[in-house]
Each structure stands twice: as structure tokens, then as C-alpha cells.
Amino acid sequence: MPIISKDISKAIALLNDDKLVAIPTETVYGLAGNIYSETAVKAIFETKKRPLFNPLIVHIPNLDYIENIVSYMPEKARALAKAFWPGPLTLVLPKKDTIPDLITAGKATVAVRVPNHPVTLELLGKLQFPLAAPSANPFNRISPTTAQHVEDYFKDKIDMILDGGACKNGIESTIIGFEDDHPIIYRLGSISTEDIEAVVGKIPIKNKKESSPNAPGMLNKHYAPSTPTVLSANILEDIKKYTDKRVGLLAFNKSIEDASIYHQIILSEKGDLAEATAKLYDALHQLDHLNLDIIIAEIFPDYGLGKSINDRLQRAAYN
Ligand code: AMP
Ligand code: MG
């Protein structure tokens, strides 16, 4: 069993020794290792069963530190970093030669962010190196938002989970790349498109159907429960198709009366999208542990964080 602990010095000792530590962030828990340690970075890919073509996000302690990671920063990238760091915004920028190819999957660009979590910021401030930290879940599974989720996934496969409580935002960072200095959203996430646009103006979203996605977070199937999942814009109607099934329901703000519902989770009774986002993955984890035949997930309003939730639900339902 990994140690679930708040002991930052213990985490530092393990990371200095090329080991992995699961770390809390405001988005989801990450599986962290020294970006310059080949042993640690290989262990990240092996532990997650993550394909080597899927690059890792580099976590740094502050904006100034980015000089060590990227070779060039367009003006709009700097504006976004100033507006949202520390925070759930990942920038994809040309990498310095010193960034190992294993981190970037051989790409000339590197993904980087400053996470907004007091425990991990303290950790990063005390380390002599940045941390590569993809989400601490096996490839294609639901991302973990509590230390317990990480333990359920990895049991004896990692040494330590640094406990920082439940993740406040609850879904992955918004990833932004640049083409000819113009920003493009590679992955919808924890910061809404509207909030990004308030800083840099209208911004396109990369088409997720492209065969060679720039961000594998854009792969169609991702963040998925093991239970078959369907999306619904009209639950009262769609639920009639599953009368003989053990049904789990994931709803936005209203509960539903129907005999075939075995369990339902309302993400935000007051209809708050940020609250719903924060609870989304824990709700999927819970439903996935109930031996259901099917999860019916309600489609969210298509604005603000509702767009990001719908993106994750579509991937959860993709087969
Ligand atoms: P995860 O940490 O599991 O949420 O995944 C990190 C995401 O960042 C993946 O979807 C990566 O593909 C994306 N990413 C990392 N590096 C790059 C890069 N150089 N170009 C585009 N996307 C990247
Ligand atoms: Mg992930």
C-alpha cells in the first residue's frame, strides 16, 4: 500500500531518489516524477500504462521559472500565464533543448503549467527540478480527484500519495497551443473558453476528430468509466429503453423518479457549473463501483464549464 501522508519532506526524499509520488493539484491528482530523471519518467509511463506518444505536462513553481523550460513565449502566452497562473491553464510552447524528449514524446514543444495548490506549490518550491505529472490514473480511466481514488487505482505500485484533500476544480487543465503566435484550445478544461477569451479575444478549439491530435487528451475515448455510459438530453424519455436494467443516473440539478434507477447523483442542486465540475469525476467513480448495467449522463448546458463537462461526458460515452 502507498503511504497517504501530508509529509512534504518525505515526498521530497522520494522524488530526489527517482521515485514517483502522487501529488494534489486543483485539477486532479498527478503522478509526479523528476522531469530530468529517465528512471522516474519511464516509471510514470509504465505505471499508468500510458503510450509513449502521449507527452507529459511539466509543473513549475512560478511564471519566472518558465525561462528554464521554453525557448520562446508569444505575447499572448505571457498574458494568459499572468492572468491564470498559478491555475488550471497549460501552455504548449517551443521547448528548450534541455527538456528530455521522453517528456514531450519527441515533439519540439513542451506543455507547462503552475498548479494552484498550496501543498504542491510548497513542494515545487523546495525541489531542484520541475515535476512531470500526468493524471494519476491508468490510461483511459477516470482521473482521480481524491487521494483515495489514487490508492484504489495503484495500491502497491507507488510509494506515496501526498494528501492535499479533494481537488477543488475537479477536471483537467485547459490546454492552449500556439500556431503563428495565435492561441488555439487543444483541450477544454477547468478554465472556460469565455474566461480565456476575456484575455486574448476569440480563440478556436482544435477539432477533436483529427487523426493525429496534438493533445492526446483529445483522443475520443478517454476519462472513461468501465460501465457502459450513454448521454441523454431527455432522461425521462431515454430511460424507458432500460426498464430491465440496473441504471445509474448522473444529473445536473434535478432528481428523477423512475423505478429502474438504482442510484442517481445530482451534481449541483443549485445549478452551479463549477460545483458540478468539481464533483463530476467522484460521481463517475462512485457510479462505476455499483455494478450497474448502464450509466445515463445528462447533457449539460453548452456554455462555460458546461462545455468542458460535455466534452468529458462524450469521451466517457464513446465506444
Ligand atoms: P494529462 O496530464 O494526463 O492530463 O495529459 C496531459 C495532456 O497534455 C495530454 O493530453 C498531452 O497530450 C498534452 N500535451 C503535453 N505535451 C504536449 C505537446 N507538446 N503538445 C500538445 N499537447 C501536449
Ligand atoms: Mg490524464
From TrEMBL:
Alphabetical list of Pfam families matching this protein: Sua5_C (PF03481), Sua5_yciO_yrdC (PF01300)
Xref: SUPFAM superfamilies: YrdC/RibB (SSF55821)
Keyword list, A-Z: ATP-binding, Cytoplasm, Nucleotide-binding, Nucleotidyltransferase, Transferase, tRNA processing
InterPro entries, sorted: DHBP_synth_RibB-like_a/b_dom, Sua5-like_dom, Sua5/YwlC_C, Sua5_C, T(6)A37_SUA5, TC-AMP_synthase_SUA5
A biological process term (GO) from this entry: regulation of translational fidelity
Residues noted as binding ATP in the record, renumbered to the chain: R50, N54, H59, T109, S135, S143, R187, Y223
Any Gene Ontology CC annotation: cytoplasm
PROSITE patterns: YRDC
Superkingdom, taxonomy of origin: Bacteria
Residues reported in the UniProt entry to bind L-threonine: T27, R113, A133, S173
Domain annotation YrdC-like: ranges: 5-191
Function: Required for the formation of a threonylcarbamoyl group on adenosine at position 37 (t(6)A37) in tRNAs that read codons beginning with adenine.
Family indicated by similarity: Belongs to the SUA5 family.
Protein name: Threonylcarbamoyl-AMP synthase
